[in-house]
Specification:
The complex is a heterotrimer of chains A (621), B (103) and C (174). Chain A is mainly alpha-helical and 621 residues long. In chain A, 74% of the residues lie in helices and 3% in strands. Chain A has a two-stranded antiparallel sheet. Chain C has 174 residues and is mostly helical. The chains are: A mainly alpha (621), B mainly alpha (103), C mainly alpha (174). Chains B and C meet through helix 1, helix 2 and helix 3 of B and helix 2, helix 3, helix 4, helix 5 and helix 6 of C.
Chain lengths: 621, 103, 174
């Protein structure tokens, strides 16, 4: 069946781009109006994305590929640009446009007092454009271009409050650390270019080449791992996860949009998009699964000991992205994408909720909050839904997607299953810790909190509904989404043991959190009092940042200082010498121009002489 | 042995170089003018010498030297006039101090 | 070498050339080396006069005559008037520009070397010269026939130059 709307998919990124251009050109004049431009553009994109999505839901649509625009032609090789719509793309389009629209509306309230609000909205529009472009990219190079563009937008938005030194440092860190991953992706892309038949880079050709085994096996493994390195950088997987928590220095809507729902999921999307390459290499799959699993539990344990509300959520994001990688690595493609889908909603919801809290109390430390449940009803309820979804409680969306991953791991990957299960316990624990610290208990003295404006609560409600319901598209009893995404039939597979186990673990985590931070029947320093080193280790995030600082940053700084010295003395010295020479010649020139006719005459005489000697010189040689 | 031209030319070259040296080294404007006259005379000597001993001897060379003498006379007159004017304005006839071209 | 000088001096006109050349160079050198301006003018007059003698040797009697009249007469007098009109401390100060003078000396000697080299290495085969019976008559005929336009132009130039000189030099308050 041919899709009618898919051919208009290129319009989707166009509206945010248009809004970016308008805001950049007329930003100062538009002020309040510019915000509406951005929201309307986001809304139109969302509507188109929805049309495509629902049309594709209706039947077994074939992929729509338009690849006509010839961008580069070198000899026999030509590189075309275009766009492609598959079921996966359509799903991503909906996620990105929806979250972006919601965040746009939310930002209207959240950034209301900021002087540079139009700049903020133009950055958001540029990001939305890049992310949508990334989603519908037709070949790897185009994908890479948009991949870098979202990186730039992330840099701009993390450093949006550039007058804060932490934000500046975080922006730089985010950019540089993801860049390390990007180098891997770039090399992988070059290898792909080199080994592909006819140097084709579009995803369809890659799919065919892998199916026909045109590329040697070890090269496939290498390419897959290099691509995964790119995904590690973008999705904050261990060991390149350090930038993501620091990126929370950016405005909270940005944390929701970029660092929870969309951009960090781009790494997962990259692996999903090039899944053929990974499937062809068991080694690469194992690497993906192991790193994903390790990151999931690693980040979850760190999240337990953090005090900053946004950092807890950031480590939670890292952990959940680890889940998705784990799912992809063990071959549970649909489960991974499904978790991406649900996670986008409930994590965006949690971030926006935390933004609402921060907006109200002007602090990010959860120990300085409390008792907000009475003052901020909507925020509390929506946040609770998000937290329950993240903790994996029936029937919220997170339960279904996490269950899908865990039951896939149950078959043949016992270690990863237990890792995932323990991580789920920690997830539930830190979420309940966060929730009870912030919303329950007594408010600190003199804190005046009030509910956020409608433009901020409305997105919360929308996302809460989605976080509640999104899980039902892929339950073990109704797995049509798997069929839709992969094209293969997926059997109903209700694994009761896994379901019960994960629910139990979720409740155990929440219960422990409630006992410690809600009812306070277990002292808070129950563990940290007995093993302070453990708390320090977790609080300092396993000293990863310190380790990087010693191993990479300082040694690189030392090298940089040497280069700087070389630059100062040798390169600059040469330039300075040249400049001084020019200056000296100039001074000589001014001395020559002394206004005295006799000096001029002398110069003319000498010049004539030199001319005569040069002309006559040929005779003697 | 007939007459040859090279002694005349050499003499003219010597006079010309001495005149050039004077014109470019002396500080008094009058002496500079005198040196220029000497250079013109050296050129005249060449003209007259070529008129008799050149490859195509004719009276034209002499006539040319007459014109040169005329121009030299005019130049000397105008030069002295400018010199006097300068002296009246600046109070000196020292060419080293005439450096208005610097500005 | 000595015999060639002897040969050279055996010819009367050559002796005359030698003497005149000596006077010309001597006058020029003295003009450079004297310190008082009036002495310089006097020394240069010697050069002018000996050049007139050389013109006679070259069978250019009219030019020699004009040389004496204009250079030794008019221009020298003009220069002396110029000296009188401007204040001179009469002492040509010692040069205070050593580098300038050294380079100038090098330049002049170099220029002479180039000219000398060119003169020595050029081949001027003299043609036959017919001075005619009366040099002045021949020149006059030429001036009023072939070169009459140039001659008139010269007269205009002279007139313009002298009027210009008068206007430049006259006092402002007149």
């Amino acid at each position: 069946m041919v899709s009618d709307y898919s051919q208009y998919a290129w319009l989707i990124p166009l509206f945010p781009l248009l809004s970016f251009l308008i805001l950049t050109a007329f930003g100062r004049q538009t002020k309040e109006f510019g915000v509406y431009i951005s929201i309307v553009a986001g809304f139109i994109s969302f509507v188109i994305a929805l049309l495509i999505f629902f049309e594709r839901l209706g039947g077994n649509m074939e992929n729509y590929t338009w690849n006509q625009f010839e961008w580069l032609k070198v000899g026999d090789f030509s590189l075309s640009m275009g766009f492609e719509v598959t079921n996966l793309n359509a799903l991503m389009l909906v996620i990105v446009t929806l979250v972006s629209l919601v965040v746009n509306i939310y930002s209207k309230g959240y950034m209301h007092d900021d002087d540079r609000i139009t700049v903020f909205f133009s950055y958001v529009a540029l990001f939305t454009f890049s992310m949508l472009g990334l989603v519908i990219s037709v070949n790897v190079l185009m994908f890479y271009i948009f991949w870098e563009l979202v990186g730039v937008c992330s840099f701009l938005l993390v450093g949006f409050w550039y007058f804060k030194p932490e934000a500046k440092a975080a922006a730089k860190k985010a950019f540089i650390v993801t860049r390390i991953g990007d180098v891997g992706l770039f090399i992988g892309m070059l290898l792909l270019f080199w080994y592909m038949p006819a140097h084709a880079l579009d995803f369809t050709s890659i799919h065919n080449a892998i199916m026909d085994a045109k590329i040697p096996g070890n090269i496939v493994t290498l390419i897959a791992i290099l691509i995964f390195v790119g995904a590690i950088g973008k999705s904050g997987q261990f060991p390149l996860h350090t930038w993501l928590p620091d990126a929370m220095e950016g405005p909270t809507p940005i944390s929701a949009l970029i660092h929870a729902a969309t951009m960090v999921a781009a790494g997962v999307y990259l692996v999903a998009r090039t899944y053929d390459i990974f499937s062809a290499s068991p080694t690469a799959m194992t690497v993906v699964a192991v790193i994903g699993g390790f990151t999931a539990i690693f980040a979850a344990t760190i999240g337990v000991a953090q005090n900053d509300i946004k950092r807890i959520l950031a480590y939670s994001t890292v952990s959940q992205l680890g889940y998705m990688m784990l799912a992809l690595g063990i071959g549970a493609y649909t489960a991974g994408i499904f978790h991406l889908f649900t996670h986008a909603f409930f994590k965006a919801l949690l971030f926006l909720g935390s933004g609402s809290v921060i907006h109200a109390v002007h602090t990010q430390d959860i120990h300085e909050m409390g008792g907000l449940a009475k003052k901020m009803k909507v925020t509390t309820w929506t946040f609770a839904i998000g937290a329950l979804a993240l903790s994996g409680i029936v029937p919220f969306s997170g339960f279904w997607s996490k269950d899908a991953i865990l039951s896939a791991a149950w078959h043949g990957h016992p270690v990863l299953f237990w890792v995932g299960l323990i991580a789920a316990f920690f997830t539930a624990f830190y979420m309940s810790r966060l929730f009870f610290c912030v919303f329950a208990g007594k408010a600190p003295n003199g804190q005046k909190a009030h509910e956020s404006p409608f433009s901020m609560t409305m997105p919360l409600v929308v996302l809460a509904v989605l976080a509640l319901l999104a899980g039902f598209v892929f339950t073990p009893f109704n797995p049509w989404m798997g069929t839709w995404l992969t094209g293969d039939a997926v059997d109903e597979d209700a694994n009761w043991a896994v379901m019960i186990l994960s629910t139990l673990v979720g409740f155990a985590g929440i219960g422990l959190g409630w006992l410690m931070y809600g009812k306070r029947s277990i002292p808070v320093d129950f563990i940290s009092g007995k093993a302070p080193w453990l708390h320090t280790l977790l609080y300092r995030k396993y000293f990863i940042d310190e380790l990087y600082d010693v191993v990479f940053v300082r040694s690189l700084k030392r090298i940089g200082q040497w280069f700087n010295r070389f630059d100062d003395y040798v390169v600059d010295g040469a330039v300075r010498a040249l400049a001084r020479g020019g200056f000296a010649i100039g001074q000589l020139g001014t001395r020559l121009q002394n206004g005295q006719v006799q000096s001029y005459g002398l110069i003319m005489l000498l010049g004539l002489l030199i001319l005569a000697l040069v002309l006559a010189g040929g005779r003697f040689i | 042995m007939g007459m040859v031209i090279s002694p005349y030319l050499t003499l003219a070259a010597i006079l010309f170089c001495i005149g050039l040296y004077g014109a470019l080294s002396k500080k008094s404007a009058i002496v500079v003018l005198l040196s220029i006259e000497l250079m013109l005379n050296a050129a005249n000597l060449n003209l007259v010498a070529f008129a008799k001993l050149g490859v195509n001897p004719s009276l034209t060379g002499q006539i040319f030297s007459l014109f040169t003498i005329t121009v030299a006379a005019a130049e000397a007159a105008v030069g002295i006039a400018i010199l006097i004017l300068l002296f009246r304005n600046k109070g000196t006839a020292d060419v080293v101090q005439m450096d208005t071209m610097k500005q | 070498m000595l015999s060639s000088i002897g040969d050279f001096l055996s010819n009367g006109s050559n002796i005359a050339f030698f003497i005149f050349a000596l006077f010309a160079i001597g006058g020029a050198v003295f003009m450079i080396s004297f310190t008082r301006v009036v002495h310089m003018v006097t020394a240069l007059t010697f050069t002018f006069l000996s050049l007139a003698g050389l013109f006679v040797l070259l069978q250019a009697e009219f030019v020699a005559f004009v040389q004496v009249l204009i250079y030794a007469g008019a221009i020298t007098i003009l220069m002396i008037f110029g000296i009188m009109m401007t204040r001179h401390d009469n002492e040509e100060e010692q040069p205070i520009r050593p580098a300038h003078n050294v380079w100038l000396g090098i330049g002049c000697v170099g220029l002479f070397a180039v000219l000398f080299y060119a003169i020595q290495h050029s081949d001027f085969t003299p043609g036959t010269f017919d001075p005619g019976m009366d040099n002045t008559l021949a020149i006059g005929t030429l001036l009023y026939n072939q070169y009459v336009i140039l001659f008139e132009l010269m007269s205009v130039l002279l007139t313009v130059a002298f009027i210009g000189a008068v206007i430049i030099a006259k006092r402002e308050e007149d």
